[in-house]
Amino acid sequence: MIHRIDPAERPNTFHELGLGERMLKSLESVGYESPTPIQAELIPRAVSGNDCIGQAHTGTGKTAAFVIPILERIDHDSNDLQALVLSPTRELSEQVANEARRLAVNHECNPALLVGGKPIRNQLNALQKGASIAIGTPGRVIDLIRRGALDLSKLRVVVLDEADRMLDIGFRPDIERILRSCPTERQTLLLSATLPPPVERLARRYMIDPEMFDLSQDSVATDAVAQYYCTVEQHKKFGLLVRLLVQERPQQAIVFCRTKRGADGIFRRLEPRLPGVAAIHGDLQQRVRDRVMKEFRAGETRLLIATDVVGRGIDVSSVSHIINYDVPEDCDDYVHRIGRTGRISSDRTGRAFTFVTPKEGNELTRIEMRVNLLLDHYQIDGFEAFQDRGPRPHVNDQVEEAPEQEEFYVA
């Protein structure tokens, strides 16, 4: 059953969602004043125990939409593991765990974070102490099941967060093995930005009469982010990036690249000249990625050069600008990238820029069709984005000196 509630009929307060007093006090203590659309629609049905599918873009409050029902439905006097959340990446799992800890301020609950790249001993200790909620990546969860350290027999709720991305990166066999190990009598919640056929097949096989809440049209892409494209030749992208940063002076920005090599290349060219710049991608050791994200969240890093490893689920509300140095390979990745700005926790409109080469006109059209919006053309006075005549210059000729920090960033 697909639910599309008239926005005028959605509950406007958390008090209307059937939540207990402890949860309402927790929401007040963390500053949650009113539910987002996905929260207003999903939470009441999830609290009642129904299997639910929530489709909504990033930045719309999906994490709280499933964490709140978990905290409402589990027995906080029990030491049994009662809820399991599966996420595609370590970073997203950590974000979910942090949100669960925040919202459990009035409950005796300390979620166990089960991810690779972290000492497994600490995770074993967390489980042995009786964690009621486990949040982790499929690979580490499978590892702990094999070790006999993770007992799923008492689970009440299973959540598949960012299900489309988990399937995209090859976690389907692990997910199915985990679900087969869970009790048949359980609640399953599936959250996804898109519902491609593989996700639908997974839902049909492992969920019982799920109710679907489609909030995908309530996109942050058009409501909270001003979107622009910049036409530029490939070899002049770096010069454009420098000029764009000087002109825009972002509070905090993420520059997205398609490849790890590309991200490292931009970082190496900016780092000697620009304070507060860092790079993050899948080849970095986990401790390095953790440090980079910690410094970015703290505002110590102002410019983050990234691949799509941080394209989903990383909630840093101070990000003011997104720059797609490379057009994303998939239109949905575009939505996830620009969802890093204009977050629901921010009162500012974000700004997103996409660099488009002459050969990428079709990609731009597909993006515009995806977000149902014609992006505005952004130009920088005095910058020649195309080589009009003569031989193409060597790439090193395009290095533009980075100005001082105060010229790059909002003071």
CATH architecture of the largest domain: 3-Layer(aba) Sandwich
Count every beta strand, where a strand is a DSSP E run of 2 or more residues.
Answer: 15
How many helical elements? 16
Distance between the termini: 50 Å
Question: Which CATH first-tier class of the largest domain would you pick?
Answer: Alpha Beta
Which bin fits the share of residues in helices?
25-40%
Structural class: alpha/beta
CATH topology of the largest domain: Rossmann fold
Low-confidence stretches: 393-399
Largest sheet report? 8 strands, parallel
Rg (C-alpha, Å): 22 Å
Number of domains: 2
InterPro entries: DEAD/DEAH_box_helicase_dom, DEAD/DEAH_RhlB, DEAD_box_RNA_helicases, Helicase_ATP-bd, Helicase_C-like, P-loop_NTPase, RNA-helicase_DEAD-box_CS, RNA_helicase_DEAD_Q_motif
EC number: 3.6.4.13
Keywords: ATP-binding, Helicase, Hydrolase, Nucleotide-binding
Protein name: RNA helicase
Helix-strand blueprint:
Layout: E1 2-3, H1 21-29, H2 37-47, E2 52-55, H3 62-73, E3 83-86, H4 90-103, E4 112-114, H5 120-128, E5 133-136, H6 138-146, E6 157-160, H7 163-168, H8 172-181, E7 187-192, H9 197-206, E8 211-214, H10 220-223, E9 225-231, H11 237-248, E10 253-256, H12 260-270, E11 277-280, H13 286-297, E12 303-306, E13 321-324, H14 331-338, E14 350-356, H15 361-371, E15 376-377, H16 405-408
Helix pairs in contact: 2-3, 3-4, 6-8, 14-15
